[in-house]
Each structure stands twice: as structure tokens, then as C-alpha cells.
Amino acid sequence: QLRLVESGGGLVQPGGSLRLSCAASGFTLEHYAIGWFRQAPGKEREGVSCISSGGSITKYSVSVQGRFSISRDNAKNTVYLEMNSLKPEDTAVYYCAALSVEYGITWLQSLYRFWGRGTQVTVSS
User: Per residue in 47-103, pLDDT tens?
Assistant: First the structure.
């Protein structure tokens, strides 16, 4: 079965940090760019960060630039999202998704082939 599984979410105080993981099973992540997206209650899902298949190209939304860092370990078939200086407005369900390498990296969600079920991140005191 081909799937992505997110982990590492939880409750954290403002200013705190979390590291999310996105693990693939049933397929090899190195052939895919990976995007992280999030959806807050009552809002549309939005792009947060993405990384090329080889890891040399990364992209961040304006709202997380300088606070979040995306990386990947293809040997472990896993992509990470390091989140620092978290704010209440970062509260959302975070999803990872896989994009076939021919598309480069993009925020266009309809192009992403596989999606995980999400992990909840709550930033609150």
C-alpha cells in the first residue's frame, strides 16, 4: 500500500519548537518532491514548504520563512519540517504530499500525487 504518514505534531507553547516527520511506505521518496501544507479551522489548506527530490531546492511561504526548515533523508525515506518560534497562528493540521519529480516544486496542490492524513499542531499557552 502506497502511503505517507505524518508524525510529530502536538501541543506547544508560543515560541516553542516541533519537528514533523513525513515517512513513506510502499514507494521511494527520492523520486518525489515533497510539500508540507496546513489547514487551520475555517480556512483553506495552504502551502508551507516544499523540497525538491534531491533536496537542493527548498521553498517557504512568507508566513514561515526564517522560522521553519525543511529537509529530507532519502536513505530513511523521510522528510522533516523543523518548526521554531511557533505562533498561535501556526495552529493547524499539517499534511505532507508527494509530487512527481517532473513538476519541479510547486504550491499547486492538484499536482501532488500522494497525501498523508495529517498531524495536528496546536500552539497555545
Answer: 999 999 999 999 999 999 999 999 999 999 999 999 999 999 999 999 999 999 888
Name which residue leads in pLDDT, 121 or 25.
121
The answer to whether 95 and 39 are in contact (CB under 8 A) is: yes
Say if strands 10-12 and 119-123 run parallel, antiparallel, or are unpaired. parallel
Residues 6+ apart with CB under 8 A from 28: 74, 77
Annotate 63-88 with b (16+ C-beta within 10 A) or e (fewer).
Answer: ebeeebbbebebeebbbbbebeebee
CA distance 98 to 72: 12
For 45, the 3-state DSSP assignment is coil
**φ and ψ at residue 41, rounded to 5 degrees:** -55, 130
